[in-house]
Automatic annotation (TrEMBL), chain A:
Keywords: Cell membrane, Membrane, Transmembrane, Transmembrane helix, Transport. InterPro entries: ABC2_TM, ABC2_TM_bact-type, ABC_2_transport, Nod_factor_ABC_transporter. It comes from the Bacteria. It comes from Levilactobacillus tangyuanensis. This is Transport permease protein. It is a multi-pass membrane protein. Residues 30-257 form the ABC transmembrane type-2 domain.
UniProtKB/TrEMBL annotation, chain B:
This is ATP-binding cassette domain-containing protein. Belongs to the ABC transporter superfamily. Drug exporter-1 (DrugE1) (TC 3.A.1.105) family. Keywords: ATP-binding, Cell membrane, Membrane, Nucleotide-binding, Translocase, Transport. It comes from Levilactobacillus tangyuanensis. It is a peripheral membrane protein. Signal peptide: none annotated. PROSITE patterns: ABC_TRANSPORTER_1, ABC_TRANSPORTER_2.
Amino acid sequence: MEVQMHKGNVVMNTATMAYRNLLKTVHNPDNFMDVVIQPVLFMLMFGYLFGGAIAGGVKAYLPTIVPGILIQTMLSAGTGSGAQIREDLDSGVFDRFKSLPMAHIAPLAGQLFADSLRLLIATVTSLTTGYLMGWRPAVGFGWIVVIGLLAIFTGWALSWIFALLGLLAKSAAAVQSVSLMTMLVLSFMSNAFVPLHSLTKPLRFIANLNPVTYVITAIRQILATGGWTHEALLVVVFDLVVVAVFAPLTVWAYDRN
Amino acid sequence: MTNMNAIEVSHLTKKFGDKTVVDDISFNVRPGEVFGLLGPNGAGKTTTLRMITTLLKADAGQVKIFGHDTVKEGRLARSMFGLTGQYASVDEDISARENLMIFARLNGLSRSDAKERTTELLKEFSLEDSADKALKNFSGGMRRRLDLAVSLITRPTLIFLDEPTTGLDPRTRTQMWTTIRELVKQGSTIVLTTQYLEEADQLADNLAIIDHGKLVRMGTPAELKREAGGSKLSFTVTQATQVAAAAKLLATQVTGAVRQTGQQLSVSLSKVAELTPILAALDQAKIMINHLSIQEPSLDDVFMNLTVGKN
């Protein structure tokens, strides 16, 4: 049999890499634990702890907290990509990928596409937990799907940033601790858990600069009005810009490594 | 093609900070030979290999693979070789078959070709029985075999092996050597790094000895051994009173210095034929000897001569 060498096809290479990462996850269900347990735990804890204090009741708090926890979970699921890439680099598998005649973005893109499965699971878990706690959005199921996709796309775009971090950091542990802090600061310094008007002026200023605030606002508006909004479009544009900036940077860091 | 070198390395240099780990190394590898990069730990063997295989950017110098510059024509150059790294670069979480399938697909094989090649390689490397088990349960030898199988998917004519037998038990090591010889027989060119002298002696047609980032000597194992000096004769004088007389007698027969350790005397011979007059002279002087031995020079001597005292 004569082995033919095809020119590397970016889409096919990426699909193969995504398949590899999916296989890895399926063989190792532990990888799903964080995206399943964390949203359930946070939704229950925050809902029942702060519901009364912030909104006068758990049920009244749910429209605030469900989008909040959803985006927080996206952020933390996104950080997983960075840690996984660092692990692959340390294990030597990436050396082999690099020595293959294929597109350099494929191993990274494959990882991130496979990670969107994690994002999907996190989204479904978050929304289902909210529903079980009594969250009943007034809009139709179609719009729930829309906000789910918006959340996943945002999480996916942000995971490019964490991927870059994974390539630049010295160890998987460093990636994890930096990611955790970023995730905590971004999700708490926003309108995810508390109404903005309750914040002090400087804090409100910071929260208004935080992109997470805009994503959550966009999702709440869709859920409240049952229609596509200006803010939602802004979020999509923001996500596209993040990918356009960070995907090339990530490939650059990968080549440099 | 006939006169073209498989690899041409010229003035390759790499610095990490202000430490020069690879210092102006140049060598050529001819098609069909096994070329060994030999050196102690930390000598710069792996760094050299990583630069040749485009995994690391060189600070200076040039590498050509079958005439193609690895910087200007990186993708083309990469398509011409297979690489097996020092640490098994296969996926732990998935099976041997899945590993081979994925790397076959990444190498551009169609799904059916990939399947066919995977089956072939599993058989060739005796991995059929554990093909579908997770690699976590694999022994070190199986992992190395799979690793090598992965780098042979496209049947590259040029294969890089970075310390292919480090950490393997003697039986697995011998199996690996057999596999490597088999590849050479099929016409592959092989570049391997090793810190084992025996391995270099067994496999390599040409050797480059590297120490502290510098290429200190190059040649065939036989040439290098010859350079290390001739055979070494050593024997023990049975009676302690005769040792001095024996040493004196020996000194008249050979040009090299006579070394004495207790009752044992040793001397370098330029050729084995010098032995006969020595034995005749000893017999005539009625000096009894035992434990006579003649040692051929080994690569150990070469290695020690060239690298000792510097590390």
